[in-house]
Write a structure and sequence with these properties.
Layout (H helix, E strand, L loop, with lengths): L1 H20 L17 E11 L2 E14 L4 E9 L5 E12 L2 E8 L4 E10 L2 E7 L5 E9 L2 E9 L6 E13 L2
Antiparallel strand pairs: 1-2, 1-10, 2-3, 3-4, 4-5, 5-6, 6-7, 7-8, 8-9, 9-10
Length: 174
């Protein structure tokens, strides 16, 4: 009796495995609507913080990866003395009907932000901070120029402050 139950259990598990593995794997969405971002970019940026205002020369590289199902964004910036001020890496992807960016900085922070196509060759993204404040970014890509700005909004929503302003020219398409 024990052997019969054991055999039935094995057959049940094999049938279950076959049924699960026979399900079609969904095809990931290609992010071709972000083609306007692709390329290597060079420009300058200004970062505003409680420690002051810092300017730097910034380069950004944006390319498709994984058969165009993600965008890889990497940026670095150096001040006039050659000290690195900006080093960030992001992956833009599509999941459950929405766009997201998982971003990492040289300071060790990371965040997953909601991304919205906000206009013709323009995107917005943002996230909430643990203190209840919000960070929002807006970028437009027109005529070979990338303009980006960021703001911090206080937890009560009463005040907004700039966090970054950047401007780039496309060096070449990737």
């Amino acid at each position: 009796m024990k052997t019969l139950l054991h055999t039935l259990l094995i057959l049940l598990l094999l049938n279950l495995h076959h049924a699960i593995s026979a399900q079609p794997i969904p095809t990931p969405k290609k992010l071709t609507e972000f083609q306007f971002m692709i390329g290597d970019w060079q420009g300058s940026g200004t970062h505003y913080s409680q420690q002051g205002i810092h300017s730097s020369d910034v380069s950004e590289s944006v390319k498709f990866a994984l058969d165009s199902t993600i965008l890889v964004i990497q940026g670095t910036g150096f001040d006039q003395n050659g000290v690195k001020q900006h080093d960030a890496f992001g992956i833009l992807y599509f999941e459950n009907g929405n766009y997201y960016m998982h971003a990492f900085t040289m300071q060790g922070s990371q965040v997953i932000a909601n991304v919205v196509i906000s206009g013709d060759q323009a995107i917005d993204w943002g996230f909430e901070l643990p203190n209840g404040g919000k960070i929002n970014y807006s970028a437009s890509f027109k005529d070979g120029l990338w303009k980006e700005s960021g703001t911090y909004t206080t937890p009560d929503g009463g005040q907004s402050f700039p966090t970054i302003d950047m401007s780039f020219s496309r060096r070449y398409w990737v």
